[in-house]
Amino acid sequence: MIDFLIIGAQKAATSALLETLRHHPDVYMPAGESAFFEAPDYARRPWEDFAADQDVRLRGIKRPDYLCSDEAIARISAALPKARFIVVLREPVSRAVSSYVYMVRHAHLPALPLNPGLEACLAAHERGDTGSRAEQVIRFGLYGQYLQRWQQAYGRDRFLVMSQDLVAQQPARALELCAAHLDLDPARMPATDAETGMVRSNVGLYDPDMLKIARIGSLLKTARIPGTLRRAPRALPLRLVGGAITRGAEELARRRGQKRETLDPALRARLQKIYDEDRELLAGCVPPEVITWG
């Protein structure tokens, strides 16, 4: 059975936190994300015998998509009434930009330039197209709205909420807070490097030309799972070719200095208005030091 979950936010250093926490000797966490409460996994009820063969005190998973999902709140609260949660929050406009390029890179969205692409995401959000990845790019930054619902289901004490700035800049402190929240021995927490902090993972790819190439690699590596928003690995030869293409795009982006497109000021203002309204709800759900953005 699952004892705790890292549920978000998207693009907020949760992968780095996972890769560090899973090295604690009393913890078992699989690498990557666990979509146990989404179709088609949900029908198999994988949480019931999760890691039953692991001789550890705590078993956890990570899935940032759960944070801003009413379906996840309903399913997880019914299946795991005693669970505890870790949430890391990032300034929401930069998170939306990062989420958009991630969705393009992994072939969930068309390879449009940044501003037209985010305009399309805003349009999907405004018309309530909750069955699309485009709408999720915007909705997954509504931290206050959804944390309020999570805390109504579980109570505030079940949630450790930290800022991405804390995880990135004070990793030892972030792990100390995790240990206290999960009742783990802090002395057995993995050491963090004074310069690099936690394990780096899921480094963003922002270069617009290289994003298009990486997207081709993702289309080769993965195929859409019918009836879901997810993609599954293809046959090994296609994965090898696709992986080589995406790695090549990442390396070229690094050599080119990771060129980035500039977010249009008017578009930024529209996004900021959405998230400023949500911030009022967020302030009632988290300690003030978690909201590190202006």
Characterise the protein shown here.
The structure is a single chain. By secondary structure, the protein is α/β, with parallel strands linked by helices. It folds into two domains: 4-202 and 264-290, 3-Layer(aba) Sandwich (Rossmann fold), CATH 3.40.50; 208-255, no CATH class. It is 46% helix and 10% strand. The chain contains eleven helices and seven strands. Helix 3 (92-105) runs antiparallel to helix 5. The radius of gyration is 19 Å and the shape is globular.
Task: Note the main attributes of this structure.
alpha/beta; Rossmann fold; 2 domains; five-stranded parallel β-sheet; two-stranded antiparallel sheet; 11 helices
- Spatial order of the strands in the main sheet? 2-3-1-4-5
Order of helices and strands: EHEEHEHHHHEHHHEEHH
Euclidean distance between termini CA atoms = 40 Å
Class by SSE composition:
alpha/beta
**Main sheet attributes: strand count, strand direction, barrel closure:** 5 strands, parallel
Helix content: 40-55%
In the CATH hierarchy, the third-tier topology of the largest domain is known as Rossmann fold
**Total count of strands:** 7
Number of helices: 11
The CATH architecture term of the largest domain is 3-Layer(aba) Sandwich
- Estimate what percentage of residues fall within beta strands: 5-15%
CATH homology superfamily name of the largest domain = P-loop containing nucleotide triphosphate hydrolases
- The overall average pLDDT, rounded, is 93
